[in-house]
Structures are given as C-alpha cells and as structure tokens.
Design brief:
The structure holds two protein chains of two kinds. In chain A, 26% of the residues lie in helices and 24% in strands. Chain A folds into four domains: 230 residues, FAD/NAD(P)-binding domain, CATH 3.50.50; 134 residues, D-Amino Acid Oxidase, Chain A, domain 2 (2-Layer Sandwich); 28 residues, no CATH class; 100 residues, Alpha-Beta Plaits. The radius of gyration of chain A is 23 Å and the shape is globular. By secondary structure, chain A is an alpha+beta fold. Chain A is built from 14 helices and 24 strands. In chain A, strand 5 and strand 6 form a beta hairpin. By secondary structure, chain B is an alpha/beta fold. The longest helix of chain B has 15 residues. Classes of the chains: A alpha+beta, B alpha/beta. At the A-B interface, helix 3 and strand 12 of A face helix 5 of B. The structure holds flavin-adenine dinucleotide and iron/sulfur cluster. Flavin-adenine dinucleotide (FAD) binds next to helix 1, strand 2, strand 3, helix 4 and strand 14 of chain A.
Chain lengths: 552, 249
C-alpha cells in the first residue's frame, strides 16, 4: 500500500450538508470573535457542494437567522416565501382537504421558504470558505482513525484510482489522513462512518432504534397557468395503502418549478412494494395529473431521511467527536422538516467544541452534549411530535393520523401526551412479511410522459461513477441474496432500490444470480437500511462519484 | 522551456444539459461545471513533460467568467506552476480566444502551447488552429502521442485512416486527443498546496485585445425524442405495422 500523507487540524467535519457547514461556520465565527486560530476542514463526497443533497424543501429559517443573520443581504437562495398551505387526503380518484383549524399550529408553514437545500448548501459553502474554512468537495471520508486509547483521532479519505479488483491503476492516488482534535460526523441519514461509530461506541443503545423513510423527488417545470408560486401541499393516503406509512409533497417553487415527491416509510411490510413505482403512480392521481399536464420533468433523485424523532436520538458524543444533523436524526416527521434542527445541532455542537478547544482539550468526550444540543429549540420542536410515528406504525395511516392529531393537540395545548412516550418497535429491516404471505402489486407501465422507468429517471440524476472501481455496495455474505432473500422475500432489493442497482438475473438453466449495477447508485442509503439480512454495507465510492443534483 | 496550457470551463460531461425555456441557449443555472476533458489531457501531458525534465514551467490560462478560478486551482493542484485568468464573458468565440492567447504568448514566450482539440460544449475545434495561424507557428492537432526533441516535436495524430506521425518545429501548437494520456487526480494534499500557487487575473483590455463576437446564434433546439419501442405479439402484427404504420414495406 502506498503511504498516505497526514495532516493535523483542529476540527475535521465529515459532510457539507446543513449540519456540517453550520458547525464549521459557527466554530469559525466563535474563533474570530475570540481572536483564536482554529483550523477546520470539511470533507464532502460529492464533486460539488450540494450535489448529493436532496430535500423537499420547505425551510424554517430560524436556525439560519441565528447563524447568518444577514443572509438576505448576502444573497442566500431563499427567495420564495410560503404563501399558502394545504393538507389533502388522497383516495384513488379524488381528494379532500383537511381544514386548517383541525391542524395543530406546528403544521403551518407561515414564515417558511420553498427552496433547494442543495443550493442553500452551495451558498453556505461559499460563506464557509469566505471565513477561511477549507471545504473539499470530491473527497469521501472512508475510514475512522483511532488513537491508542480508543478515542477517535480523525478520518482518512478514500483512495482514488483503484481498479474493480482492488489493484492500483496508473493514476492511483492514496487517500489522506486527517488527524483532528475533534471529529464531527455530519453525513446525513444513515452515515457510513456514523454506522461504524455506533457499532464501536454503542451510541444507539439507550435510545429507540432509528427509523427511516425513503423520499423520491422530481423537479418539474409546469404550465405557468397551473403554477401557484409559494403554494405548499402535503398529501396523505393513495397511492400508499393504510398499512404503509408515508405521504407526498408538492411545492410550487420559483421559475414555474414544481418540487414533487413521495416519502415511503421504510417499515413497510409487503416485499413486493416498490417505492419508485409508488412515486410514479402518485403522479397519475387526477390532482397531480392536472398539474403536470403539459409540464416537463427536469430532475430525479432519492434520499433516505430519518424519522425516529425524539426517542431515537442516540448518544451524540463519542471520545474525540460527535454526531451532528441527521447522522444522529433530528427530523420532525409531521412537519417533514429536519434542516433547521440539523443546523441547530451543528451550531450547538460547535459551541461545545469551541469551549473544549479553548481550554486545550482534545480527543476526549464532550460530556453532557445531548442536553446541550437538544435543550431549547430541538426539544421544543421534536418532543411534542414524538408519538406521531409510533402511532402511524401501530394503527396505520387512517387511525394513526387521527390519534396523532389528537396527541399533537394535547401536547400543544396541555403540554402532555396521554400515550406517554411510545417506542418504535422493530427496526425497519425487520418489518417485511414473507413473500409467500404477501400480495404481488401490479404497477402500471410508464407512459413516458408523466410516469417513467428507472433507467430514464436515473439518467436525470446526472450520475458519474467510474465502472472500474471496487463495488461500494459490499455484501458481508455474497450468498445471502440468492440463498435467503430470494426465497423468503423475493429479494426486495430489486424493488426498494429506486435506481435499479440490484437485479436478479437468470442464466440459461434458470439459475439465479444477484447482480449489482453499482454505477447507478444515487446514494440514498435505502439498501443499507432495508435489507432484511442486513447484509449490504454501503461504503462511499471513489470521491466525486454519484449523482450531481442541481437545485435539489 | 515554458509550456502554456489553455483551459476552458464547460458544463460537466456527466450533466444532461437542457435548454432555457425561451430557447436562447443552454440553461447553465446551478449546473455543474468542470475543466474541458481534452484540456485536462493537455494539462496532464504538460505536467508529464515537466516531470520528465523536458519543460521548466507549466502555465495554465483560462478565458471566461470569474468562476474559472475553480478549474485553474484544479490545474495548479494537478501540477501547473502558475495560472492566469483572463476575465471575459462566457463563450468567447474561437477567434477572440486565439487572439487573447496570442497576446499571452507574446508576454510569456512559451515554446509549446498544449491545448485540447476542442471544447465539449460548442465542439468548435478551431482555437488551436487559429492560434497557430496568428502566431505563424507549426501545429500538430489530434495528438495521441508526443515526443519532444531539442528543436522539434514529433506528434502522432489520430486521423480517419489511422495514425499519422509528423514532426513540427518549435515553437509549436499541439492539440490533444482522447488517447494521449489518462489525467491524474487532484489529490487533497496537492489541492492544499495549490492554494499558495500564484493565480493572476487580467482582462482582454489589459492584453490589448478587443473582443468582438462575430457569430449570432439563431436558434438552439433539442434533439428529437426517441419514440419508445413497442412489443408486437406476432409476425403478422409486425408485418402489418411495418406496412401500414412505418410504411417501410
Ligand atoms: C425527500 C426529503 C424531503 C425533505 N423535506 C424537507 C423539508 O421540506 N424541509 C426540511 O427542513 N427538511 C426536509 N428534509 C430533511 C432534510 O433534508 C435533512 O434533515 C437535512 O438534509 C439533514 O442535514 P444533514 O446535514 O444532517 O445531512 P445531509 O443533508 O444528508 O448532508 C450530508 C452531506 O454529507 C455528505 N457525506 C455523507 N457521507 C459522507 C462521507 N463519508 N464523506 C464525505 N461526505 C459525506 C453527503 O454527500 C451530504 O452532502 C427532507 C428530506 C428528504 C429526504
Ligand atoms: S444501491 Fe442502495 S444507496 Fe444506492 S440507490 Fe440503490 S438503494 Fe440507494
């Protein structure tokens, strides 16, 4: 193995999402105010900042107001204020709106903005660089480095130029070791390093298991006559059945764009369910069909989100660093918002790190970090909605929504919950029924106008991924997909992966073979979450690989 | 010997471009931009010449918007010694590019200009040739192999019939084809070091060049969408459809 270069910094941040960039910016602001020198490096696996970010997004600007109070003057890409809000329940052919007086106030989007989180991150990246923070897009952190005492010493970036068989190509360049006094992990939902840290330090041990949803999003340019700038719509119900949690969103953004998406909770039970096909079917509902008529699809992407909420927040600190943002999981499910909390957590963790650095500490445990990060805004936001997800899981969409509506009201008005704090039950990978006990779902064929197949969709994610590199979807036991998943669950990877990465191919004798088209991967992390055998390990491919989302 | 390498910032080759709603050109808002792949190859070759002790200095130059600094920083990380950005509007036409480059050549006095054979956005394939004409230098275009001797350069060119090897006296222009080499990665340590390398910013004005665009784009259209295929159920249906729908029988 070629020798790796090493560099010492004060803080290394993994991931240039809202959490990572907010942490870096806050830290540098504090250092400037105290006239202290703090060196910060931010690593981002996407070739460009924001290129791997996918969000709704309706953004609550509270945390941004606190981080960069003059963001308007500095040209932050938050231009479209939410003007109107609606919440609809879909049946197969119709829909009805839930009157706003039924909805607890937390559902209101007054004061929020419709924006692209990817663009906001690109802008935050510029702010960070202007402060003197080194932000390096195109470099994935692939390894946690440990000190002899077991504390985290930093991270290493991945090698570049390894061939599929692992050998070094002529243009091979070894990764680099970054040794830091504190390492912050802001990889977003289901981080690959966060997963290793959890395994090593049992961070999730005293919390409920994390829960997830898969969001599939498309950007459309629609007929200006049907576009209603600033309108936000959330939907429940069809195409998802009562047993499958999730919902849709329709955000009317600037430039006659419609941000359209469907979230499917990953504790769905039917192995024949395909979140991708559900999303395609969603667009055939009369309410959407009308909006999309004459429009054009511009982009496609998918990303998992956390949905465990308050009960699932893990131990945030580990010796030598902390989890921030959705790597820990601060998503508010009923509000479909996580960005503000991701930013709060980054900022508050930065404050704790700054104090520790100021008194010469390093590579130790930031004790009491959970309370420090969550007391205040995050707790106020998450605690009152803590039972929404468990109620949906238990009672299905219809009664779950009614009960959680009731629960949200008692929490809002009276400050308590008759349910106490409910648990989440089994993790998402354990929720599938056996294939033989499940009903096949007959999804309609794509029409090429409103509904599409995976190949033409993934095309719009602008993937770049050199084929000649080791497969980054690592099977712990390569025999399991055929030996266990296929007979038990009809190998659900074929369907849950929104990008068509996994296929069962058959040779002439009908013998099945598990095929991985790694170059199609859009980095949504669903396979790592949902594989019933927990046999797929998602690791970052060569830096800069993956989608190149624009304005997602 | 000094080597000058001109670099263009273009829409990344992985991006599916789309047209602006009014059809006036390609929509570049929020679009990922990167170094033109052929220019990357030219740069790599220049750096290899330097590493082999055949060149003393590699100067990267880009003409275009201020953001072009990004690709120049990448070039510095990949081994260029210094960089020059000539601030101009986007999509300056080849003749203007050639004139600006000629002015830089007059100042820097390189003996070799190594550039990409064409930019992947407008596919003009003109700048190198025009520069050679303006300077009165020899040129070796579509290079898939080069060998530097004392006062000349041997260039293997990719031509329709196969490969052609020519000898060009120095100073010369060489334009790179795809097979010349595989460019290296900009590594993290090198990107860090590149931040300290010099990057000068100038303008066509300062170089004494008047940029006059001569072409007007009348229209930009998307290629026609391919109709999805259909599955026929029988030979009879196939024949029928070929006859009555496609009209080819
Ligand atoms: C479909 C969908 C809709 C949503 N809608 C909304 C909404 O309307 N409003 C709202 O507020 N929130 C919304 N959210 C949630 C919001 O997007 C997240 O809460 C937020 O993005 C979390 O920020 P983060 O910084 O923790 O992680 P992320 O935004 O996921 O950013 C993580 C970054 O780290 C990078 N990274 C990961 N691993 C590595 C590694 N090993 N090395 C280097 N880089 C790495 C990633 O490429 C990425 O750039 C939505 C989420 C989804 C999926
Ligand atoms: S392979 Fe996994 S991470 Fe990649 S797109 Fe498919 S499900 Fe998502």
């Amino acid at each position: 193995m070629s020798a790796r270069e090493t560099m010492e910094v004060d803080v290394v941040v993994v991931g240039a999402g809202p959490a990572g960039l907010s942490a870096a910016i806050r830290l540098k602001q504090l250092a400037k105010a105290a006239d202290a020198e703090i060196s910060i490096i931010v690593l981002e696996k996407s070739a460009e900042i924001g290129g791997h970010i996918l969000s709704g997004a309706v953004l609550d600007p509270a945390a941004l107001d606190a981080l960069v109070p003059d963001w308007k003057e500095r040209g932050a890409p938050l231009e479209t204020k939410v003007k109107s809000d609606s919440f609809r329940v879909f049946t197969k052919n119709g829909s009805f709106a839930i009157p706003s007086f039924f909805l607890p106030p937390l559902f209101s989007n007054h004061g929020n903005y419709i924006a692209s989180l990817g663009s906001l991150c690109a802008w935050l990246g510029e702010q960070a660089e202007a402060l003197g923070i080194d932000v390096f897009p195109g470099f994935a952190a692939t390894e946690i480095l440990y000190n002899e005492d077991g504390s985290v010493k930093g991270v290493a970036t991945g090698d570049m130029g390894r061939a599929a068989d692992g050998s070094e190509k002529p243009e091979f360049a070894a990764g680099m070791e970054l040794h830091a006094r504190y390492t912050l992990i802001g990889e977003g939902a289901r981080g690959s390093l966060a997963k290793q840290l959890d395994a090593r330090f049992s961070l999730q041990e005293n919390a409920q298991p994390q829960k997830y949803g898969l969001g599939i999003k498309e950007i459309w340019e629609i007929d200006p006559k049907k576009h209603c700038l600033g309108h936000v719509e959330h939907t429940l119900g069809w195409p998802l059945n009562n047993d499958t949690g999730g919902g849709g969103f329709l955000y009317h953004a600037a430039g006659n764009k419609l941000f359209l998406g469907l979230v499917v909770h990953l504790n769905y039970k039917n192995p024949f369910l395909s979140p991708f096909e559900e999303m395609q079917r969603y667009k055939t509902h009369p309410h959407l069909a009308r909006l999309l008529e004459g429009g054009k699809r511009l982009s496609f992407g998918a990303r998992a989100m956390t949905s465990g909420g308050w009960q699932s927040i893990p131990e945030l600190a580990f010796p030598g660093g902390a989890l921030i943002g959705c790597s820990a999981g601060f998503m508010n499910l009923p509000r479909v918002k996580g960005t503000h909390n991701a930013m709060w957590s980054g900022m508050k963790t930065a404050e704790a790190v700054f104090e520790a650095l100021s008194i010469g500490r390093s590579n130790d445990l930031l004790a009491g970090l959970n309370a420090r990060v969550t007391d205040g805004e995050i707790k106020a936001d998450l605690k009152k909605v803590r039972n929404a997800k468990p109620l949906l899981s238990r009672f299905g969409t219809l009664f779950g929504t009614l009960f959680s509506g009731f629960d949200l009201w008692t929490n809002t008005l009276l400050g308590f919950s008759v349910f106490g704090t409910l648990g989440h039950g089994a993790p998402d990978y354990a929720s599938l029924n056996k294939a033989r006990d499940s009903k096949k779902i007959d999804y309609p064929k794509p029409d090429g106008k409103r509904t599409f197949d995976r190949a033409s969709s993934v095309f719009l994610a602008n993937l770049s991924h050199s084929e000649d590199q080791p497969v980054h979807l690592v099977l712990k036991d390569p025999s399991l997909p055929i030996a266990r998943n296929l007979p038990d669950f009809d190998e659900p990877a074929q369907l849950y992966c929104p990008a068509g990465v996994y296929e069962i191919l058959r040779d002439e004798d009908g013998k099945p073979r598990f095929n991985i088209n790694a170059a199609n991967c859009v980095h949504c992390k669903t396979c790592d979450i949902k594989d019933p055998a927990q046999n797929i390990n998602w690791v970052p491919p060569e830096g800069g690989s993956g989608p190149s989302y624009q304005g997602m | 010997m000094k080597v000058l390498v001109p670099l263009k910032r273009v829409v990344d080759f992985n991006v599916n471009i789309r047209l602006k709603a009014d059809g006036s050109g390609v929509d570049k808002t929020n679009v990922k931009m990167s170094m033109n792949p052929f220019d990357e190859i030219a740069l790599e070759e220049a750096v290899r010449l330097k590493e082999a002790g055949k060149a003393d200095e590699v100067i990267a130059v880009s003409i275009g918007v201020e953001k072009g600094q990004d690709i120049l920083r990448t070039a510095l990380a990949c081994g260029a010694d210094r960089a020059i950005l000539v601030i101009a509007e986007e999509d300056v036409e080849p003749l203007n590019i050639a004139k600006i480059l000629a002015a830089i050549v007059a100042e820097e006095k390189p003996e070799l200009v190594l550039m990409g054979k064409q930019a992947i956005d407008n596919d003009c394939n003109q700048s190198g040739q025009m520069l050679a004409a303006l300077l009165g230098w020899g040129q070796g275009t579509f290079a898939s192999k080069i060998e530097l001797a004392d006062d000349a350069i041997q260039v293997t060119r990719e031509v329709d019939a196969g490969l052609q090897t020519i000898k060009v006296n120095l100073p010369a222009i060489v334009t790179a084809d795809l097979r010349l080499n595989t460019p290296r990665y900009a590594t993290l340590p090198n990107i860090m070091k590149a931040k300290k390398k010099p990057l000068d910013i100038t303008t066509p004005d300062k170089l004494g060049v008047e940029v006059r665009q001569r072409l007007t784009i009348l229209e930009t259209v998307e290629p026609p969408v391919r109709q999805p295929g259909i599955r026929v159920t029988s030979v009879a249906e196939l024949v029928d459809r070929l006859k009555n729908e496609a009209g080819v029988l």
